[in-house]
Design goal:
The complex is a heterodimer of chains A (347) and B (93). With 347 residues, chain A is α/β, with parallel strands linked by helices. Helices cover 42% and strands 9% of the residues of chain A. Chain A is globular and about 55 Å long. With 93 residues, chain B is mainly alpha-helical. Chain B is 59% helix and 0% strand. Chain B starts with 7 loop residues before the first helix and ends with a helix. The chains are: A alpha/beta (347), B mainly alpha (93).
Chain lengths: 347, 93
């Protein structure tokens, strides 16, 4: 189940859930449902007797990460195992002992705002580590516009204004916060580019809504001009851009309500190198339901653009159950399905 | 794909720097390495090839290139500009 509970289902129940989920996703995003053949393939993956499953030889994909090495030294709230290691040690362990395709580092808060005042510390550590890594080494954080609102930031909080009916005021504070966020993203990006950054990850863009998403898109566009050789991954925060502002546009396109195939297109237009699709897990539905729904969105997003599309497959996204120790059955079935049926360029 | 254990890092570079889709990136890397597509994840082939090319191995071989020295060779092999390598080259010229 989407909450990690182990359940037994009949073949008919699994197929019913797959069909219901792909119909739900297709209806929401106005995209095609999975074909009968794809539904059958997904059922076969779900019904494989092995606990862990894998793709066929030759269909392996690369895995990018959002601070995976942080899980070596962080705690439960970061999915971490609490081993006393430095960031450098964690990155090298992840690269060499875990054979990671890419590695990354980031501030423990994993948001860009707190990085700005300590950018010189981050630049030094990034530079030192990049001299020792061999695989692509990214710097990642979340735009996280929520930190720019009171009580954490300078701007009045739209969550206080909206319930009082102050729609225009809520839009204005979001626009002001988004502009400040954009400037901070570009500031950090330029600084890191100056010390040979191999890639930047704008992770979980749009978590505070469409204005947050706009700031990330605009920052990608700005950095594409200022640092044309800097690879930038942009990842979404959900299958649907929340319309907290509702009227924000990028390239004359309304951002609120964009589904993954539209998100990937606008990220490609902004200049992103890779787009990461995030689809939330419904904890009340089965694994088959959640994977089928994710698959329907991913397949369309992959086909919609010429840049690589990676599927976010982690705790609570990509069909994986919402829990801190997702069962390996579900993680491997989600991964295999998204690669073999969804044709994802990576995870 | 196995990172520096096989060729995952090389395919990742092509996605990041050249925005290549997976199939295109794999073909490009296989061609540059002079191997079949299936051998991209064949440890038996890639382990020795990586050591021969000096592009870094997952097990530590004393005196063998790793880190920025390996990436210098990766950039040459794949014919792509890696930002850290470009900075490094500018400092030693």
């Amino acid at each position: 189940m989407g909450d990690g509970e182990l359940v037994s289902m009949s073949a008919e129940e699994i197929k019913e859930d797959i069909v219901a989920a792909t119909q739900e996703a297709a209806q929401r995003a106005e995209i095609p449902e999975l074909t009968a053949d794809e539904i059958e393939q997904l059922f076969d993956i779900m019904a494989e007797p092995s606990r862990a499953v894998s793709v066929a030889s030759g269909q392996e994909v690369i895995v990018t990460d959002d601070g995976c090495s942080m899980s070596f030294y962080s705690g439960q709230d970061g999915g971490g195992v609490g081993i006393p290691m430095s960031r450098l040690q964690a990155v090298l362990t992840y690269e060499r002992a875990c054979a990671a395709d890419t590695t990354s580092m980031g501030h423990s808060d994993y948001s860009f705002k707190p990085v700005k005042p300590i950018i010189n510390f981050e630049m030094n550590e990034y530079y030192t580590t990049s001299m020792m890594t061999t695989a692509p080494f990214l710097y990642g954080a979340q735009p996280n516009m929520g930190l720019y609102f009171q009580p954490d930031g300078p701007h009045p909080n739209p969550a206080d204004l909206l319930p009082r009916g102050k729609i225009k005021e809520a839009q204005e504070v979001q626009e002001a916060a988004a502009e400040q966020l954009r400037q901070d993203l570009v500031f950090v990006g330029k600084k890191l580019n100056g010390i040979g950054c191999e890639g930047l990850n704008f992770d979980t863009a749009g978590s505070a809504g469409d204005a947050d998403y706009w700031a990330a898109l605009q920052a990608v566009s700005d950095l594409r001009q200022a640092a044309p050789n800097l690879p930038i991954i942009m990842g979404g925060s959900g299958e649907f851009v929340l319309g907290m502002h509702a009227e924000v546009t990028f390239n004359d396109k309304q951002l609120a309500g964009m589904y993954p195939h539209e998100q990937a297109k606008i990220a490609e237009a902004a200049g992103a190198s890779i787009y990461g699709v995030a689809v939330g897990t419904n904890t009340n539905e089965s694994l088959a339901w959640n994977i089928a729904r994710t698959l329907t969105f991913i397949k369309e997003a992959v086909a919609a653009v010429d840049i690589p599309v990676h599927a976010n497959v982690g705790m609570g996204v990509g069909g994986v159950p919402m829990m801190e120790a997702p069962p390996i059955d579900s993680v491997t079935r989600a991964s295999k399905s998204l690669v073999q049926i969804g044709k994802a360029d990576g995870l | 794909m196995g990172g520096i254990r096989t060729s995952g890092d090389l395919v990742a570079w092509m996605q990041l720097i050249k925005k290549m889709k997976l199939a295109e990136a794999k073909k490009y890397v296989a061609r540059k390495l002079g191997i079949d597509l299936l051998d991209l994840t064949n440890e038996e082939v890639m382990r020795q090839l990586r050591q021969d090319l000096g592009i870094g191995t997952t097990t530590s071989v004393a005196g063998s290139p790793k880190g920025i020295r390996a990436k210098l060779k990766v950039a040459e092999l794949l014919d792509v500009p890696i930002n850290s390598v470009e900075l490094f080259k500018s400092q030693i010229q």
